[in-house]
Amino acid sequence: MNVNCPLPVNGVPGIITLGHGSGGLMTHQLLQTEVFDLLQNDWLDQQHDGATFSLNGKVAFSTDSYVVSPLFFPGGNIGDLAINGTVNDLAMCGAMARYLSLSFIIEEGLELSLFREVLKHIKAAAQAAGVAIVTGDTKVVERGKGDQLFINTSGIGHIHPRAAIHHNRIVPGDVVIVSGEIAAHGMAIMSVRKGLEFETEVCSDTRPLHEMVGKLLDCFGEQVKFLRDPTRGGLASVLNEMTEATKLGVMMNEVSLPLNEQVAAACEMLGLDPLYVANEGIMVAVVSASVAPSVLGALRGMKGGEQAAIIGTVTKEHAGKVVLESRIGGHRVVNFLPGEQLPRIC
Amino acid sequence: MNVNCPLPVNGVPGIITLGHGSGGLMTHQLLQTEVFDLLQNDWLDQQHDGATFSLNGKVAFSTDSYVVSPLFFPGGNIGDLAINGTVNDLAMCGAMARYLSLSFIIEEGLELSLFREVLKHIKAAAQAAGVAIVTGDTKVVERGKGDQLFINTSGIGHIHPRAAIHHNRIVPGDVVIVSGEIAAHGMAIMSVRKGLEFETEVCSDTRPLHEMVGKLLDCFGEQVKFLRDPTRGGLASVLNEMTEATKLGVMMNEVSLPLNEQVAAACEMLGLDPLYVANEGIMVAVVSASVAPSVLGALRGMKGGEQAAIIGTVTKEHAGKVVLESRIGGHRVVNFLPGEQLPRIC
């Protein structure tokens, strides 16, 4: 039995079939020809039910399933998201991702070329983020019971020795910073779905944030009190979760919100509030007021942080609420996103 | 904004909608009312992007996505599988599962009562296996783009100090043991799908195997050379993977295979070979010949191991092949499952 025979198999050229999820020969062939060589490392080479390694000290552990539609969009694809998203979830815990798991749920009929393309992006994103994909799983569901490809990644990373990230460390007077322009990812997806055209393409901001977090923690340690990447639900949801947990308020300044012109125009056109639109490459940091200008300066000197801005302050007033001061000086409460705005954005 | 308001929300009684995957208020409410309280622990209480804890020493890390259909079947459900399956993958690495992640991909329209029922089984299975669900994710896809509920769990566990499990430690003469009757899980699923009726119900064998593995390693340490749970693809696939990796053979004895009568009858009726049918509560152990009788005795004294049997021997002959000696003394090669036999069995 030659397991190195190339796909296509069973006379079906270049299509993933139910047999590829059987756990038998076809699964074995798919993994051998498409996955193991590409993502090669010592752990994956063992082809065991799991990967084994040594860990010492404090670690973070996170998981996310990615169901973004379409699979490819301006600035990225589901493969990038699946790596960067979990790297970023760990980074928000103050951890540098090291080991990732990778699990596919494939709809029967997915073109093999598309699967390969996603795998290439997974490899590139993993290399860029310095993580090893050490274990995985592949399932195939019948046509009409999935949607091309869903990916789960889970990750483990060592926590930075100076990290002390917890919402209970936030006090009134702390400063809220975002590391870049908001709403780009969501609008990139929407521009494809709605067939919108702009002078310059609206691109997803998908990007790993671990280096940015690492440098901030190197320099500012426990002065960095809270980190969160505003993905689904956008900036508004992250800030509402924070104010709910801390029983403090946030006063946010609309003028200071970094927002790309094209993205703003796209939001306007579709009647979407950029505060609720998903991001995949920025973070919210709550830091001590004393270091806020230095943190801002540091972020602006980093790749991906050039547009960082101080957007608000933690307050004792408006406990549990996020209040936005508008361009014309009015105040409004920014609630949680009440329903669904942009399904399957990540 | 009262986040403790019970579901139903938005006038849709007891149904999961796209809004529950928005990352906004409805996601928040679903998690608060249905998940966090039920699965409560110190890590989950933090409601961060990931869980943090300390680890010291050798660990195993594993992932699996569960797409079983139907969600409930005799002897178990997707919730049991999602916990036991990952606990068992870790056990096969010689590790005792400790921390699990839990990620849902829900099809819009799933009944909330069904989701709750699955969650209850998840909780019970996690308690039975002594694992904490420390982090998670919830996505919702549109009707017709999923199939009720898919679950991913990933897990981390400490490796037993006496574990030395690697296929490269297997030598000719080693003995192959299975811990229980084969093919029960797959036939339980098939009996539902095909509406088969038997005198007594054919039940899935889903069960956590960590205690069994722990006890074997306590007693026999490095004499236990290889462990694998024969899920998708069944016993035949696990043995083929082993012979391929070791370049050794396995001579297996059909008479000695533990197989329940009802399960055998169901396989016969559907024209399925039990060697390829999925299991969820047994394992294959390859052990030194000198301890094989003691291992067998130990297994038979454990819950879930009563039907354990020595089923074969590792051979220098038939390199890379699994050979079955039939009841009437004939020999045949048992290959990898060539195509798909039972889709979505786990």
TrEMBL record, chains A, B:
Superkingdom in the source lineage: Bacteria
Segments forming domain PurM-like N-terminal: 49-158
Xref: CDD domains: HypE
Residue span(s) of domain PurM-like C-terminal: 172-324
Residues passing through the membrane, by range: none
UniProt record similarity statement: Belongs to the HypE family.
Designated name of the protein: Hydrogenase expression/formation protein HypE
Gene behind this protein: hypE
